[in-house]
Model the fold of this input.
Amino acid sequence: MSFDELLATGTIRRAATATVERTEPIELLGRVPYGRLATSLRALPFLAVARHIVSDGRILLRMHSGFGHHEACDGSVVAYGADNYSDAATGDGASLWSVQFTGPAEIVHPCPGQEELFGAAPVSVNGEPYAPAYLRIDPHFVTEHTLDF
Done:
């Protein structure tokens, strides 16, 4: 079932937004390549940077496996957020936005076509070779916020 179908059936709840021109939050993810994954590890909260794509209404993440963050997320409810706040530095007067998706995550192995959509992977993380791990988030709760200037 696609994200739009889930939204239409009421399976996914969306928090109130202040958007004048309606853009679906899932579409906003396509405008930026990276976001932040939030969950807890040994009862302590943490954020991890991840590359994302949208496939079949679900969010696929690619992250470094060396820290074990993907294992902490597997089977847990997580939050994933992205924004275009770096656009504020350009001063072009455009609206800023942020989206957050909350739902269960699971480790997956993407098909070659999905892997290609992620693009080139980093060479290293903190000086160590990058080793990808993939998670899929099935969004159940969506929040979108805009800042208009």
Summary: Helices lie at 3-9, 25-29, 69-73, 112-118. The chain has one domain: 3-16+27-147. Residues 1-7, 9-22 have pLDDT under 50 and may be disordered. The domain at 3-16+27-147 is CATH 2.30.110.10 (Pnp Oxidase; Chain A).
